[in-house]
Amino acid sequence: MSGEALSDVPPPRRRRRWPLLGLLGGAIVVFWLAMAFLGGLVAPHDAGRIVDMDVFTPMTAAFPLGTDYLGRDMLSRILHGTRYTVGVALAATLLASGSGLVLGMAAATRGGWTDLVLSRCLDTLSAMPSKMFALVVVAAFGSSVPVLVLAAGIIYTPGAYRIARSLAVGIAAMDYVRVARARGEGTAYILREEILPNMTGPVLADFGLRFVFIVLLLSGLSFLGLGVQPPNADWGSLVRENIGGLAEGAPAVLMPALAIASLTIGVNLLIDNLGGFRRRGGEGA
Q1: 104, 152, 198, 206: least surrounded by Cβ within 10 Å?
Q2: Does residue 240 contact residue 248 with C-beta atoms inside 8 Å?
Q3: What pTM does this model have?
Q4: How many CA atoms lie within 13 A of 29 on its CB side?
Q5: How far is 134 from 154, CA to CA, in rounded Å?
Q6: Number of C-alpha atoms within 13 angstroms, CB side, residue 236?
Q7: What does the alpha-carbon distance between residue 230 and residue 194 come to, in Å, rounded to a whole number?
């Protein structure tokens, strides 16, 4: 066979090999996201129903995660609480990352006074300790779900802004952006077609990290009694209300803490392996 014929043979396709830890993290995240929507449907009992006269019972076939300090099924309580832990944190993360992305790209492309004013204002906001700011907001406006979402979103907007602005400034200096400007493309086109697509990976990674931070912040507020209020409960509230069973190692206090840990670990594993997913996906194309 001639060299010309050999050159026409396409290279063998490589099999896609997804990162194992990334798949594990993705499975954990998908599971908890599904429970945020379906937890109330698959829970064996109502969240507030007392199902056993004994309190802090160990794990049994009837109650796989034991019972709490009132004799309620902990599996049902955790599944019902997922919508508050995951839902509130996800809404706050979307608010923080979305606001930071929009403001960061505006500052990077407009420059001048726009950049200066936005950067100084958000730097001032980021100088305040996050938990102290949240405590002040909750004390002033009460502890409702909208207030928690707004407070957490405002707290983490400056960090998202700095990441987005840094990425946008770097990309705006690239040759292909200069070429787009030279041929007369407007700012909206450059943001949509040139800058934003090249920011997707880092912005998604930052979104995941910000989600973890907000989960821990909201769980901490709930543990202090300033988060989601009864009769509703998130995982932080479940740890606080069952803290009396810690001395005897009751599952009622350990399982909500393990749920928080599993969610944060799963998100971190997924974030750490995002690059592996994209790289291996490109090789198999």
Answers
A1: 198
A2: no
A3: 0.85
A4: 19
A5: 9
A6: 21
A7: 48
Q: How many residues does the chain have?
A: 285
Tokens for 118, please give them.
């936005």
Could you tell me the two tokens for 12?
């063998």
CA separation for the pair 190, 273 (Å, rounded): 29
> C-alpha 16: how far from its chain's center?
27
Residue-by-residue pLDDT tens, the chain, 285 positions: 445 545 555 555 555 567 888 899 999 999 999 999 998 899 999 988 899 888 898 999 989 999 999 999 999 999 999 999 999 999 999 999 999 999 998 888 887 888 899 988 998 888 888 888 888 898 888 888 999 999 999 999 999 999 999 999 888 888 888 888 888 777 788 888 888 888 888 898 899 999 999 999 999 999 888 888 888 889 999 999 999 888 888 899 999 999 999 999 999 999 888 765 555 544 443
**If you compute the radius of gyration of the chain from its CA atoms, what whole number of angstroms results?**
24
Superfamily of segment(s) 21-276: MetI-like (1.10.3720.10)
Identify the bridge partners of residue 72 per DSSP, sorted by sequence position. 50
> Rounded to the nearest 5°, which phi and psi values hold at 226?
-115, 10
The residue type of 231 is: P
- Cα dihedral: 264, 270, 275, 280 (round 10): 170
